[in-house]
Specification:
With about 525 residues, the chain is an alpha/beta fold. It has 13 helices and 18 strands. The strands form three sheets. Strands 1, 2, 14, 15, 16, 17 and 18 form a seven-stranded mixed β-sheet that branches. The chain has a six-stranded mixed β-sheet with strand order 9-8-10-13-12-11, covered by helices on one side. A five-stranded mixed β-sheet has the order 3-4-6-5-7, with helices on both faces. It is elongated, with a radius of gyration of 34 Å. The two termini are about 30 Å apart.
Length: about 525
């Protein structure tokens, strides 16, 4: 969502830059009005549009997002803390958003109430096309839909021209434009571009009305009418005001400006390459999960091809991907189309990356992971036979399971039974709280990120055993082993109703500064 909002603001900045540099000084007022109305709406829609042909125009970059722990000397950052902190900050951001939206809604209702009170409290005259409301002891003049508010202190000789001016606002429904931006201010009160848009559309409304009314008399006389009063204005942002000091100079300059040449309308064509670039950007951005059909979760099936004989077990956990493990003689890959990682949906991709990381992080085992289309229109993660080295003897089903395929994962103290996500987060949180992150700067390592891999097993009694560490320095390895040794005992995992030992792996990164 944050990425979407940033894209909306960025596109609005670009649209306003085009308006200011190319269009604002032209006298194509009606076209400019539609530009200012349509482009903020387009900025909300374009990030949602994905053009497949644009995606194919550039090669897809494969970016791996690993569930890793990241430690630096100055701060400890890892997935569980980031996630919990983000969830908390998300709550605060959500609360702040609704507080802001509520305040701006209240301000809008107060201004609307002020207009309603003016209608109720003061003398009104019903005309054929509008309702005229006189405000005593004022020189204000403004309109809101078919209501024209006129200060009684305005000379009678000038009232007719002011009414004509406000009638243009009324007939062309300028109040709808302003109310649209008031609504956008409520839902995006933090976006400065909305306020910039509203200022520009307000000025443009005056240009339109001035153009229409000034055709009925000499422009010099009309300009004198603008300058001949002490201007009071109503502080309501969604009404069209005849007298507004900050706009008078610009209005006069525009009225004295020569009509723009028709050829200048070609400037609107600048939009074409800009829109194309925006669509290209949104279509080829990393957040392209909408292009791929999102797979559905289902109970995970584990296929075991042991010595050429295929067995399958349906687990209780629902996942995007099934698992295919082949060991011993006579192994074959699944009979299906091999897939590229870019053919996976986001949910499938995340599961695949977890499998891949687990397969690469052990010292005594390494697996090459491939993806295939398989039974029941499900995709399956398969392990290639080369990954098992010289193992050719017949094998039997063992009582050790991978963390990814087990029916009931080990349960960390404080977590719900079999909660894999909670287990991972508590392990990572333990690292952040206990790992000496300042020590890494004292080891003479080169600057940058250093990857560390940990493999371990949770035995049938729930103890952490067989800890294996790959680290760039022996002291770091010793620190990791020390942290692992301080982990509490957990409830062991189960598969098919039997207690089993479970293999687990953790990648994490240290930042040397």
């Amino acid at each position: 969502m944050i990425n979407y909002i940033l894209q909306v603001i960025l596109f609005q900045v670009l649209f306003l830059a085009i308006y200011d540099f190319f269009l604002s000084k032209e006298t194509f007022f009606t076209k400019n009005r539609w530009y200012l109305i349509s482009t903020p709406i387009l900025s909300f829609l374009i990030p949602l549009i994905k053009v497949p042909s644009f995606q194919k125009a550039i090669s897809q970059e494969y970016i791996v997002y690993l569930p890793e722990i990241m430690l630096s000397p100055e701060r400890a950052i890892q997935q569980v803390i980031e996630q919990s902190t983000f969830d908390q900050s998300l709550n605060y951001i959500t609360i702040l958003f609704w507080i802001g939206a509520g305040l701006f809604l209240m301000l809008f209702l107060m201004k609307l109430g002020k207009i309603i009170n003016l209608i109720r409290q003061h003398k009104t005259e019903q005309k054929s096309d509008f309702t005229l409301i006189f405000i005593p002891n004022q020189t204000k003049a403004f309109s809101f839909f078919n209501y024209i508010f006129l200060g009684k202190e305005i000379p009678v000789s000038q009232q007719e021209k002011i009414i004509q001016h406000e009638m243009v606002h009324s007939k062309q429904k300028h109040s709808i434009d302003l109310l649209m931006f008031e609504f956008l201010k409520i839902v995006m009160w933090f976006n400065p571009m909305i306020y910039s848009y509203q200022k520009r559309i307000t000025l443009l409304h005056e240009y339109i009305s001035d153009e229409v009314v000034s055709k009925k008399e000499a422009k010099e006389i009309y300009i004198n009418n603008l300058l001949s009063n002490y201007f009071q204005v109503e502080n309501i942002s969604f009404v069209n005001q005849f007298y507004k000091q900050s706009l008078i100079k610009k209005r006069i300059m525009m009225m004295t400006k020569k009509q723009s040449k028709k050829m200048n309308q070609l400037k609107y064509l600048v939009l074409l390459p800009v829109l194309t670039s925006m669509l290209f950007y949104t279509s080829c951005s990393e957040n392209n999960s909408e292009v791929l059909a999102e797979g559905k979760k289902a109970p995970q099936t584990m296929y075991i091809n042991a010595n050429g004989k295929l067995n399958q077990t349906i687990g209780k956990e629902e996942t995007f991907l099934d698992v295919y493990i082949g060991i011993g003689e006579g192994y074959q890959f699944p009979k299906g189309k091999e897939l590229n990682v870019n053919a996976l949906s986001e949910g499938e991709k995340l599961e695949y990356l977890e499998f891949k990381e687990s397969s690469e992080s052990g010292e005594t085992f390494k697996l090459d992971v491939k993806i295939f289309e398989y039974k029941n229109n499900r995709k399956v993660v398969a392990f290639s036979p080369q990954s098992f080295g010289n193992i050719t003897e017949k094998v039997e089903y063992k009582s050790e399971m991978s963390f990814m395929v087990i029916d009931k994962a080990p349960t960390f103290p404080g977590c719900e039974t079999g909660d894999k996500d909670c287990f991972s987060k508590m392990i990572q949180k333990h690292f952040v709280n206990n790992f000496d992150s300042k020590m890494v700067n004292e080891l003479g390592l080169s600057k940058g990120r250093k990857r560390i891999f940990i493999g371990f097993k949770i035995d049938k009694q729930g103890a952490i055993v067989d800890v294996q560490v790959r680290a760039p320095h022996e002291d770091i390895k010793a620190e990791v082993l020390s942290v692992m040794s301080s982990l509490p005992k957990v409830i062991p995992g189960e598969n098919e109703g039997k207690v089993v030992a479970v293999k687990y792996s953790i990648p994490f990164t240290i930042i040397v500064e």
